[in-house]
Amino acid sequence: MQLPETQVAVLRAADAQSNRDVTDIADELDEQPQAVARAGFELDDRGLASLDERGEETVTLTEEGERYVEEGLPEIALYEAAVDAGAAENPVSLGQLIGEAGLDGDAVDIALANFARKGYGDVESGDVTVDPGADPADDPELRALEALVAGEDVDDESVLDQLDRRGLVERDERTVRSITLTGDGVTALMEGVEAAETVDRLTPELLTSGEWESVEFTDYNVEAAADDIEPGRKHSLREMADRVKDVLVGMGFQEMRGPTVDADFWIHDCLFMPQDHPARTHWDRFAIENPAKIDEIPEDLVERVKAAHRDGVGEDSEGYHSPWDEDFARQLALRGHTTSLTSRHLAGEALGDLEPPQRFFSVEKAYRNDELDATHLLEFFQIEGWVMAEELSVRDLMGTFTEFYEQFGITDLEFKPTYNPYTEPSFELFGRHPETDELIEIGNSGIFRPEMLEPLEVDCDVMAWGLALERLMMLATGAEDIRDVHGTLVDLEYLRTEEVIY
Questions:
Q1: Residue 47 — left, alpha, or beta (φ > 0 → left; ψ -120 to 50 → alpha)?
Q2: Binding site: what residues are annotated?
Q3: What is the domain partition of the chain in residue ranges?
Q4: Which residue, of 25, 80, 256, 416, has the greatest Cβ tally within 10 A?
């Protein structure tokens, strides 16, 4: 019998008495596991071998899980501290126990979340009582972690599920294939099996030499199962960003770029945002320590911006009449919005003085200390844009949005008046989610105020906006949670399979 060379090698390496793992055979033959598996499928088709498949799960500890094996679970530390403090007889203050248990930061919340769940006791009105009959030494989650460290299996799926939810283990599933020699395979080997001279692919050399007409090609079983191949692809959010850029360039806009770390002067002060605004506190901005501030800001511009903040601009403006600290304005931070790029361009710092009409945009990252949820992350992409021209109106702004969003099939925009320190009039944009039918805020916009434009020496109208790229993607694709798209909880399967629809 003649067979392709790889099939002959696999047939000879297989065993009639036991299953041999495909990866073991591949190592022995110095072949790729995919090639051995393909040969196994072909031998199975011929009845010479049996190829079996089974799912196998591997469970490994995360860094946090390894730390808990060494230091103990936070809820057990809380329980032991409470027992030592006499909480089995009388309630003990939680504040006292946290210090005695050596808990701080996230460990406090983790301990509280699991303390009552495991029946170790109760926490009511800031006081802790414990169940003296509880046995933390026999905690199933701790025993499972210790077993995994020792290389042992954990059979309790409910415990593994809980450890997975807590982020203490990572579970990985893979398909394991094994090959067993059949009776017909043994007979074939005894009668003699030879390697046929076959070719498994059509090469340029075969084509140019003409040999392709006389060689024998390897048979392929196109119905045989094969390993999933996950090639690299462009991130779906990047695809959306590229589409946005194409649309805006088609509308006559130029792209602008600028520093991710910038002085508060460009991020906030030039936007006529008071220095005591809540968005400028250390709770909302990400300040930079080294270097902590910047010196390269034109002194005359600093004086004009300071005057606008203190006294206003023109007869009808009074400014904020509040302290303005130049040292604070020079401090560096991650930009909380990309309007800092607009400030630099309007001031002539980016490209020199600009004469109207002008249209600019950017699709860049911004950073805010927001609470994480389905529509908020600490970092996000902002679609910044502005138009400089004479006698602009809100109608021009709304028309620009209508034209832009129509390119993505979004036609049911809603507008709501709002307040911004740097625009008047101002309004927010809302779009309806195609799956949940919920109205989602997708942007903020307005006409820049004289208090912003005059210090920058801009003497015509400027309309501007900041739109959320992630929320545009939600409306365009039906995605319901931006944490699936990027961030620490990203859904890799979603990114591998999602098609961006415009």
A1: left
A2: 339, 382-384, 422, 424, 448
A3: 2-57+173-217, 63-169, 238-497
A4: 25
